[in-house]
Write a structure and sequence with these properties.
Layout: E1 2-7, H1 12-23, E2 27-33, H2 42-45, E3 55-56, H3 59-63, E4 69-71
Parallel strand pairs: 1-2, 1-4, 2-3
Amino acid sequence: MIRITLAGGAGWVGKALLPAISAAPALELVAGVSRKSAGLDLGAAAGLPANRLPVFATVTDALAFPSDVLID
């Protein structure tokens, strides 16, 4: 399983990528990065159903969370 952190996860690209990553059996979305949405649920911040994933304000903060890949 590849653990992914998505930078810009609350924006229009994040809104498109969240469902695609979630549907891929070999991928696991673990966190997002968004200055405006930091501290919120990633799904809700993107206007999608809540998914209980954290949103961090900076990439540095997000990379302290276990992840294999950062999509920017």
